[in-house]
Amino acid sequence: MNRGKLIGQVITAGRKRVSRVSDHFETIRERMVNEQLLVRGISDLKVLDAMQTVPRHLFVDDAMRNRAYGDHPLPIAAGQTISQPFIVAFMTQLLSLTGSEKVLEIGTGSGYQAAILSRIVEQVYTVERINGLLAGARKIFSELGYYNIQAKLDDGTMGWPENGPYDAIIVTAGGHKIPPPLIEQLADNGRLIMPVGDQHLQVLKLLIKTEGTVQITDLDPVRFVDLIGEHGWPN
Ligand code: SAH
User: 129: Cβ below 6 Å to ligand 1?
Assistant: First the structure.
């Protein structure tokens, strides 16, 4: 069986075709899904479909559009980075989303991770501490019609208590510990994923909350930009 082709068809099946004009980047995205995600064990169809759908090249600088689907992170404004496609898919898959969830993201950055989540779940809340990045992300969300994302400027280590509890929380910057407010704002049976370590290297930690108790599993080593704030690194 031609596995790549079969999965490619499944991925395309649920997608709305708004235009017959073929998207130049669509083919490149499909290659990204096949060569970077499927072969490395991303098997959640909702995640694969979102990665195939969201136009990642719109979340990076014009000058970097041609590198947007490469197997690496890329710089965005203010010295921050948009994660490697595989990391975005891997972290999203670890949240085990079914579609009805309310998810909180800390570290909006380019907005790409929030955009991926918004194609999978009902409602996404995302917090960013740098105004320029937040403004850019909001603009793309509105241009793409991703209306189920709410973004605010704040210290995300405090969470976003007004809208909690959240079924899932994803932190896309590295801290020295999981911020306690985030654990508080996680719903029962909720899952939280976050890179924890020093400012050079972290390990992805998956926290699962069950009847008030938390279980934490260490996963792969990763490298993220700093989580800066009350429960993160000092500014
Ligand atoms: N998820 C982003 C990745 C951005 S990099 C994307 O898909 O592009 C991490 C981001 O976390 C940076 O934009 C940084 O400014 C932000 N950040 C760091 N500390 C933060 C905090 N305490 N609250 C909110 N955002 C924070």
Answer: yes
